[in-house]
Amino acid sequence: MPQYWQFFSAVLGFIFRHPIAGVTLIPILPDDRIVLVRPRKTGKWALPGGIIDWGEDLPTTAKRELKEETGLDLAQFGRLVGIYSAPDRDIGIHFISPTLEVRATGNLQIEDTLEILEVRAFTREELPFSELSPDNTRQLHDYFNGVTTIA
Q: In a 10 Å sphere around its CB, with 0-12 CB exposed, 13-18 middle and 19+ buried, how is residue 104 labelled?
């Protein structure tokens, strides 16, 4: 029994002492509107994205998360906006997340209704910065300013 507990403790220590890898997406529709979601966890508008599942690569995660949260299909990868790693970016979990511009097609429809309350497309002028998750505000500003950020 003590050997199992040591192994289990080592695994838990590894998991909880290391950041989680995820992806954040800036989905652009053919009419250049940007798609945001409203997660149940915060109730604030946010860029879609999520955790990379074990055995998944970044492109697969991006396609899956976009589909689950917005109903859209990933048509084309755009540019890398940045890699964001501040420990306080998310409530309770330390995420490291590349932020990617993606071109998306299809109809807005939430597939993961347990996680997402609402999905909507905004023109640049309509973006609800006052109701947006703080880290996503920075990511969108970096995107609009054409910079690639490592933070």
A: buried
pLDDT in tens, 41-88: 889 999 999 999 999 999 999 999 999 999 999 999 999 999 998 877
- Cα separation, 82 vs 49, in Å, equals 14
The sign one gets for the Cα dihedral 85, 46, 124, 32 is positive
Beta bridge partners, 117, equal none
Taking domain 19-150, whether its CATH number is 3.40.50.410 is answered by no
Domain ranges of the chain: 19-150
| Residue recorded with tokens 């909880």 | 16
Exposed, middle or buried, 73 (CB in 10 Å: 0-12/13-18/19+)? middle
Residue 36's nearest CA partner among 105, 133, 111 is 133
Contact 22, 56 (CB under 8 A): no
Question: In the prediction, which pLDDT does 4 show?
Answer: 63
Residue from 101, 104, 102 nearest 148 by CA: 101
d(CA 141, CA 112): 27
